[in-house]
Amino acid sequence: SAEVIxxxxxAEDLRQEMKEEVxxxxxxDIRPKLVVVILxxxxxxxSYVKGKQRASEKIGMxxxxxxxxxxxxxxxxxxxxxxxxxxxxxHGILVQLPVPDHISDQKIIEAIHPEKDVDGFHPANVGKMxxxxxxxxxxxxxxxxxxxxxxxITLEGKHVVIIGRSNLVGKPVGQLLLNENAxxxxxxxxxxxLQSHTKQADILIVAAGKPSLISAEDxxxxxxxxxxxxxxxxxxxxxxxxxxxxxxxxSHITPVPKGVGxxxxxxxxxxxxxxxKRIHNx
Length: 282
Ligand code: NAD
Hints:
This protein is α/β, with parallel strands linked by helices. It is built from 10 helices and 11 strands. Helix 1 runs parallel beside helix 10 (261-279), helix 2 (43-58) packs across helix 10 (261-279) and helix 6 crosses helix 10 (261-279).
């Protein structure tokens, strides 16, 4: 039976280290600060941003939550972002996406100064990641990379198969692992004979948002399985992998919940501290 990789435990360890780093920065009069902006009152988005704020406070990091009405205009939001870009006390800016339909997500992403883009979505930062440069990496993909490394899983030369090609998860996690010298295959909704690909994977990353898409018969004996999916089935949180059967063939597997999820916010905290250090030349 597979070793279960608990992102939750790792996230707690990393946040403890970050708490110490933040207090060390405070002694140098550097106060890392994250500002999260949310439009409207969508309960899922609200619970995400509250989680981000709580996590910031827990490591002693300054954080502001700016709640705007859903009818806020694109101009008003762009003006606010510009104000935050100019504010020297702010190091990380995050606008909770998606924004309402009358505002362009892409315009908002591109308005945030790349040095404060702690989500790692700005095309300048995406481009840096593509070309193997250091920058802010998107939080979920980065969290997956850190989990694999901390679990001592060799990436070089491994065949990584990713199900999913979104800009949020699939594409960037593939790029980060390619940068680590893995051989990367992306599958997606138009891929033919999915199982013929997943069966080849030394490391299988599933980010499709489809409950039970993957089970034991899709997995090569001894593979590492990372389940990114978050689905609600009969009121219960579940991933994209049938955990019970998969753990009998995999060597390592992440659960849902307590797997990849807690790593995402952790990497957001990491990126904000990094932004503060860069802005203050530390
Ligand atoms: P998305 O809907 O943007 O992308 C899903 C991808 O999966 C697409 O590229 C699609 O082609 C592919 N896909 C869908 N059905 C497929 C199928 N049957 N066979 C092969 N490929 C298929 O979603 P996303 O934003 O990339 O998120 C993916 C999942 O990860 C969701 O469940 C989401 O909730 C979850 N997620 C979790 C975290 C976290 O922190 N744990 C963060 C982001 C997203």
